Amino acid sequence: MKIQTLSLTLLLIIFWLLNSGLFKPLIFILGAISVVLVLLISSRMKVIDEESQPLHLTKNIPAYYAWLLKELVMSNIKVVSTIWQGHLQLQPALTTIKMDHLSDMGKVIYANSISLTPGTVTTDVTENSITVHALDKSSIADIQSGAMEARVRKLDN
Amino acid sequence: MSMLTTYLSWASLVLGGFLCVSGSVGLLRFPDFFTRMHAASVTDTLATGMILVGLMFQAPTWIVFGKLFMILVFVLLTGPTAGHALAKAALHSGLKPLLPGKSGKIETDANPSTGGV
Amino acid sequence: MFTAAAIAVLVAMALALVRAYAGPTLYDRILAVNVFGTKTVLLIAIVGFLTGRPEFLDIVMVYALMNFITVIGILRFFEYSVAQATANSETIGEK
Description:
A: 2 domains; 3-stranded antiparallel beta sheet; B: mainly alpha; disordered C terminus
């Protein structure tokens, strides 16, 4: 029995309890049946692995989320102030940015973090580069400075 | 419920409402699809976050709190995925992003995007 | 206070509808529908609190998931039909 199976079981139990909110024997039995069924299906689909349950990230992820939240607020302020400008003067940019080697998980986290922050959207990811559309050129420079990439790299190992 | 959480909740809800309207105004004002997408991601991230946090402050039970948190996580996880899928599909279909030309700036009322589809 | 937030969300929804109606390209419309869906999620959550029935949150969760699936589904549908159309007219050779 892998540790991922255990974590998935725990996650499903919490999910069920949170959604039902009823603590009666019948509901518990139904919940147990559902959890076992989902576990069986996911083990047959062979999706219980480090990819679906990235437990090795657990140690570093709270710091990363805190940093991402800060970035999120900053870029939101930037985009909202652009929206309410009297006379729009945009400098959008579509640029391909090189990146050093990251694991697959790292690439996904990196690209999704870029998409999540307003003002930048990832349009393509390849082996060693990402293509980003930005509302303003300065956001591209921010990404090129590599602060986020360094964070993801730290998170990933 | 103490006064503090009530005030915090009100502040979050008002800010969230403002961000919601801002995102939609951006959706209307921006000149082409790709820039509009950035405006839409404001409503997907911080506006949703502030409103749901504002509701969390007033949650009567922990179950309600947990559900609100779960909705927030869903929205934050699916937002960038949908945005990326949209951007990639638009690029592949041949929709060109509006980029600043030699003059360097894009004016508001330059010709708006004349898309392919 | 919930009423104010609900009104703000409703105004934002109306603006998103204007974009969905006006949007010059297909993708603008899909984007507007996506934004509209996110606002619906917020509106139902707020209305649930406004009427003092947090059970609405279950519906909210379903809407949040459905919104995502809708966008992906519509995109898949149009990606194929647009690819077909461009292959027929041969306007865009790049794939």
